[in-house]
Amino acid sequence: MKLEMMEPIVKKFYEGLEQGKFYARKCKECGAVEFPPHLACNACGYHETEWCEVSGHGRLVDFTLPGPQNDKPYLKENGKYAYGAVEIDEGAQYTYVIYGITKKKAPAIRAALMAGEKVGVHAKVIDRPGYKMLTFELD
Ligand SMILES: [Zn+2]
């Protein structure tokens, strides 16, 4: 995955990560925010979106602990993690790697989600060879 091979929209997203900024696309028609950014709006299908910055804060919607097939050693170098759906404060939902969720803490986090409590997360950018990767971490 080389930067020059990516589409401009993906490139700006990754360049943002290098600078600690989180770039999203906002729909000119309905105002929905696409993050990670897409060219068109997934909410209404409108083709015109514009750049905006999002805070990198949100809430955990759901998660699963990694099993033997999808447990990645390079991810573990940064701590214990799970895979989870995050809804950012600006409204877009996507699946990310979530740090701070351990097997021990998982039942309590699951109970909080079931009870409708907000489980806050924030963006955590990790270094990969040649690029930055966006993950999230429990607040
Ligand atoms: Zn829209």
UniProtKB/TrEMBL annotation:
A family per Pfam: zf-ChsH2
Segments crossing the lipid bilayer: none
Domain of life (superkingdom): Bacteria
Domain ChsH2 rubredoxin-like zinc ribbon: 15-45
InterPro entries, per database record: ChsH2_Znr, NA-bd_OB-fold, Thioester_dehydratase-like
Coiled coil stretches, renumbered: none
Protein name: Zinc ribbon domain-containing protein
Species the sequence originates in: Paratractidigestivibacter faecalis
